[in-house]
Amino acid sequence: MFALGFLAVVAVGYLDYVTSWQCKFTVLYFIPLSLTWFIGKRRGLILAVLCGIAATSTELSWGMPYDHPLIPYWNASSRLLIFLIFTCLISKIKSQVTGLEMAVVARMNELVKEIDEKKLLKKEKSEIYCALHSTLDEMGEGFVSMDQQWRYTYVNPAAVKFIGKEADELLGQVCWELFPESSYGLAYQELHRSVRENCVVVFDNYIPAPLNRWYQNRCYPSPKGISVFFTDISERKFAEEKFRDLTDHLETVREQERLAISREIHDEFGQALIAFKLDLSWIEHKFLPVDFQLTGRLNAMRSTLDLLVTKAQNIASELRPPLLDNLGLAAAIDWQVREFKRRCGIECLLMLNDGIKVHDKEVGTTVMRILQEALTNIAKHAKAQSVVVSLCETAANDLILEIVDDGRGIEQDEIHSALAFGLMGMRERARHCHGVLTIRGARGKGTTVRLEIPRETAKEAH
C-alpha cells in the first residue's frame, strides 16, 4: 500500500511537471496522502514529505520569475505544512475510529456476556423457584404467602388441606375477606405486628368449629408481603391439656391430703401429746416430795414433750396454715411473713389492703403456696436484707400478690432454666387459677415476683 502511494506521488508529480505552470495539480497530491488511512501515521508523513518535495521541484523547474527570492520556499513550506496537517488529521481520525470500533466491540462483548449471565441467572432462578415450589408442595407443613394487600400469592397442598379451600379459591383473594372472623382474633394482631415491626413472630392459634384444631404459626415478613408456615399441633395441645388437668387433679388431691394430715397431726397426735403431758404433770405432782431423781427425769420428759408439741404444730402449719381456713388469706399471709422473719432474720414489710376476703379456697391455696415458694427461694438464693410483701386489688377487682427483695437479683437463664422446678410449679399454680405470674430481676437490684389473678377467678367480698 505504501508502494502504491509512492507511485501515486510520482505520477502526480510527473503530471504536474509536464503541464504548464498555469495549471497546478496541488490538489491531486491529496490522493496519495489519503492512503495514510491504510498505511499508518509514520508512512503517511513520509508520503507527505515526498508530496511536498515533488510539488516544490516541479515549481522550481518552471523557472518562473518571483518578486522575492524566498517566495518559492514559502510556497514549499506552506504546502508541506498543509500536507503534514492533512496526514495527521487522517491518522488521528483513523485512531479515533479504531478506538471507537474497539470500544464498540468490547461493549458488545460485555453486553453479550451480561445477556448470557442474565439468561443463566434466570435459568438458575427458575430452577431454584421450581425446586422451592416442589419442596413446599411436598412438605407436611402448611405454607402460604401474601402480598402487601394481604392477597394470597401461593398456597401449598398442605395449606389447602388445613384451610379447607382449593388453591384457586384462595389465590388473589384477600385473606381477611375470605375469613372475616379472623379479623378480630389473635392471628390478625400477630400478622400485622410482624409486618409493622418487621420481625419474625411465632404464635399458637386455636381454630374453632368446624376445624377444632391448634396451629403453630411462624410469620416471616418481607418487602413484598409476608410468608407464613403453620403446623398442626392439635395432638400436642390436647395432650398438654390432659396433662395439665391431671396435674391440677394431683395438686388438688395433694392439698386435700395435706389438709387431712395436718388435721390428723393437730387433732389426734396433738391431743395425745397433751394427754401425755397431763399424765406427766400428775406423776410429777404425785412423786415430787419422794424421789428427786425421778423429778429430774420428769422435767426432762416435760421439755421433750414441749418440743414435740411445738414440732407437731409447726408441721401441721407447714402442711396447711390453719389461719387460711379459719381467718382467711390476709391473716395467713401475715402469719407466714412473721414466721419467715423469725426463722431467717430478714427484715419484712407487709402491706395488705383492708377487707380483702377470698372465698375460693383454690385461689387462697395458690396464693399461699406461691408466697411460700418465693420466700423459700429468697432464703436460699437471694442473699437479701429486706423483703416487701403486698396483697391488693386493682380497680377491676383483680387480686395481686407481689414479693420484692433487695438481694442479688435473679438472672434470665435462671428464670427459664429447665431445672427451676420451683418456678415451674409456681407458674402451673398460677395457670390453674387463670392467673399470670411475672418474675423480673436485675443483677444487684433484687427480684420481683408478681402474681395477678383475674376477678373471674378470685372472688372478693368487702
What does this structure look like?
- The chain is an alpha+beta fold and 462 residues long.
- It has four domains: 2-106, no CATH class; 139-232, PAS domain (Beta-Lactamase, 2-Layer Sandwich); 237-320; 328-462, Heat Shock Protein 90, CATH 3.30.565.
- Helices cover 61% and strands 15% of the residues.
- It has helices spanning 2-18, 30-33, 36-39, 41-61, 71-138, 157-163, 167-170, 175-178, 186-197, 234-287, 292-319, 322-326, 329-344, 361-382, 412-415, 421-432, and strands spanning 142-147, 152-155, 201-207, 213-222, 225-232, 347-352, 386-393, 399-405, 436-441, 447-453.
- A five-stranded antiparallel sheet has the order 2-1-5-4-3, with helices on both faces.
- Helix 4 runs antiparallel to helix 5, helix 13 (329-344) runs parallel beside helix 14 (361-382) and helix 14 (361-382) packs antiparallel against helix 16.
- The radius of gyration is 52 Å and the shape is elongated.
- The relative contact order is 0.04.
Task: Give a nutshell description of this structure.
By secondary structure, the chain is α+β, with helices and mostly antiparallel strands.
Topology:
Blueprint (H helix, E strand, L loop, with lengths): L1 H17 L11 H4 L2 H4 L1 H21 L9 H68 L3 E6 L4 E4 L1 H7 L3 H4 L4 H4 L7 H12 L3 E7 L5 E10 L2 E8 L1 H54 L4 H28 L2 H5 L2 H16 L2 E6 L8 H22 L3 E8 L5 E7 L6 H4 L5 H12 L3 E6 L5 E7 L9
Parallel strand pairs: 6-7
Antiparallel strand pairs: 1-2, 1-5, 3-4, 4-5, 7-8, 8-10, 9-10
